[in-house]
Amino acid sequence: MDHVPSDLLLMLLADARLPVAGHTQSAGLEGAVQHGLTGADVPLYISARLATTVRVEAGTAVVALHHLTHALPLEPVVAAWAARTPSHALRRASRMQGRALSRLTTRLWPDEEPVRRVSGLDGCPRAVALAGAAAAAGLEAVALARLVGYDDVQTVASASLKLLPLDPAETTAWVHGALPAVAGAAAALAGLTDPRDIPATAAPQTEVWAQAHAHSTRRLFSA
Amino acid sequence: MPDLSPTRGLRLGVCGPVGTGKSSLIALLCRELAGRMSLAVVTNDIYTDEDARFLRASGVLAPERIRAVETGACPHTAIRDDITANLLTVEELEEEFAPDLVLIESGGDNLTATFSPALVDTQVFVLDIAGGGDVARKGGPGIERADLLVINKTDLAPHVGVDRDRMVADAEAARDGRTVIPLSRTDLDSVAALTAWVTAEVVRHRAGDLVPTDPGPMAAHTHGHTHDHDHDHPAA
Amino acid sequence: MTTLLPDRATARSTRLSVTPTDGRVHVRIATPGNPDAPCLRPILLDSGHRHARVALVPDGALLLAGDAVRLDLEVGHGVRLEVIEPSGTVAFDMRGGEASWDVRIGLAPDATLVWAGEPFVVSSGARVRRSTSVDLDVGARLLLRETLVMGRHGERGGHLEQQWSAHGPDGVPLLVEETVLDERSHRPGILGGHRALGTVVALGAVIDPDLCPEGRLDLECAGTVWRGLSHEAHRAVPREAWQAAVVAW
To answer: What are the start and end residues of every segment in region (Disordered) (chain B) (predicted)?
Structure first.
């Protein structure tokens, strides 16, 4: 295949039209709204996620990328992620997204070793599946970490249009406003290589919300 | 020659507007077919779980064979453009139970929503008598070109002032010869016609003779003046 | 800003080990280090053939700037140790200084530790680093409760950074968590304006899946965490979960 600039591949992976069931995800927003979160709180919710959950996810992705590109085993990365993700509902949602992503990357890069390793991994979480895509696409660790952060912010913003309808220019302004924090987190995490160093920053209320949300019978989103 | 007959069971989509009886139709099929073949169900609720819970509560199938897919308020997307969540769930059920038939219920949307042929092998569009006699005449991709059109709750016709035979005739005209089944749970012949159609689709699929077709995203180009398709179109 | 880092060489640590013998368990307690420094002093309340019960009592005023509390706890093969705290702990305004509180727990095969922690209150102006690190050998079980409280009554609270980790045999991570509580943790999704964060950690056994669904998080490896957020310290720990788990343990 002809060389494709990595920024084009990053655009592809960051696109909401990517068929990975992104429309089923709210990044915990629906659970939060069920517990009283209002539109005015969403920017703070986004920033709280960037300080906690997103660091775990992006750290996991970056370390998985290192393990994929250095012929190191992925199991310790998955174990580190699982130990940092105490909510069963969140682990399950992440694994469902991991499968959706693997399904796609297997189609896009059938001959790439990292994609094969990731798709052969039982219960592969989303962050590790994204690392497989990043390895196949030749993305740098920092770009991968940015992708994880950006996608999380966009997921909250687009779900808020369903749950707390408002001017979409406003939600896009939230995303724009969160970009410095995304960049900062990515820069801080891009150098990680050891599963033990993956951040374990907890978001206790998010975890409790996610678990309650998974048990609720009336919901629009998977998580 | 390699054997091209599919190793997995038939995937049957059930779509149609809200309240036309999709869940009841699936419950009916489960009751009628469970003794003859292995079944599984995927529901796409706008508010998840509701339809899955209805089916589990109806006791027609083991609860673990009924799975709900969340659609993020995009029921159309989930069966048409990004079918990933549904495909993963169907594949999961196929892996666990190797069913002969997986029934996929769409989230009740509107007249335009139909399944992607990448998700289902064949699809049923469900209308009901109570929706009004002119719905069939208005058409739309599902009404005109779904593999089967069911006109449900025909027993209600006298109560809602709809001419049942007229509605069926309109539907048949709109469908260009494709099958229409007027259905009432109390009319055992109509139930038999439905299960016979589904069983025949399972057989065709198993034989490798079923090619999924797309009802299309929108109403087809129609000509008010003629049904002759060989006439010349004016140059655009 | 001056930071009074604790002088670890002159701080006082606590070592507690409970090991099996042919008769009553052997309980060893030591508090090496500077005798003028405060520490946690274990008081043996009860012991028997395979069990012991210990109270952790503060020796000296805790917790002030420069304090470095350190507790090493070993539970031997097949022994059950219960730890209670007669009172909670308040980390006071440290006026630019900081304090630390480190607990290391080693659980031998089939050992059980039940630790009924009391609230840890981070006053406004307090700056504390806390860590808990647990190693569980085959068949070992841990049941621990913990309440972190931001501020005394009417306060917003200070700054707490807590590292919590538990590893199973062969170093497999079971639960790894960093909790940072400060002004920014009041954001929705972290504490969401609540003052108290209560946790029950149950590791090494599978809990009945229907037991106490409220705030329940089932871990990847055999273990369950219950979380509670509250405005009141005594309501944060899910009481029902704790009581049910104590019975199960």
So the answer is: 209-236
- Look at residue B92 in the predicted model and tell me its pLDDT: 94
When CB atoms are compared, the residue of A19, A96, A162 closest to B82 is A19
Residue B22 marked in a binding site:
yes
φ/ψ (deg, to 5) at C73:
-130, 125
CB-count exposure of residue A218 (10 Å: 0-12, 13-18, 19+): exposed
Mean pLDDT of C134-150: 97
Alpha-carbon gap: B83 to the closest alpha carbon of chain A (Å): 7
Residue numbers of the domain that contains C147:
13-177
Q: What is the ipTM of this complex?
A: 0.95
**Assigned domain for C208 exists:** no
| C190 interfacial to chain A (CB closer than 8 Å) | yes
Spatial distance between the Cα atoms of B222 and B229, rounded to a whole number of angstroms: 10
Q: Which CATH superfamily is domain B10-206 in?
A: P-loop containing nucleotide triphosphate hydrolases (3.40.50.300)
Pick the CATH number of A24-210 from 1.20.1280, 1.10.4190, 1.25.40, 1.20.120: 1.10.4190
Asked if B72 lies within 8 A of A221 by C-beta distance, the reply is yes
Q: Return the domain boundaries, chain A.
A: 24-210
Question: Is C205 part of any domain?
Answer: no
Q: Number of Cβ pairs closer than 8 Å across A and B?
A: 64
Q: Which chain B residues are closer than 8 Å to A34 by Cβ?
A: none
A-C C-beta contacts closer than 8 Å: 92
Residue B16 known to bind ligand: yes
pLDDT tens digits, C103-128 = 999 999 999 999 999 999 999 999 99
Strands C51-59 and C39-47: antiparallel
Residue with the two structure tokens 């002004």: C183
Query: C145 is written with which tokens?
Result: 């409760």
Partner C contacted by A221 (CB < 8 A): no
Q: Is pLDDT of C91 > 80? A: yes
Distance from CA of A87 to the nearest CA of B (A): 19
| Better pLDDT: B7 or A112 | A112
B162 - beta bridge partners?
none
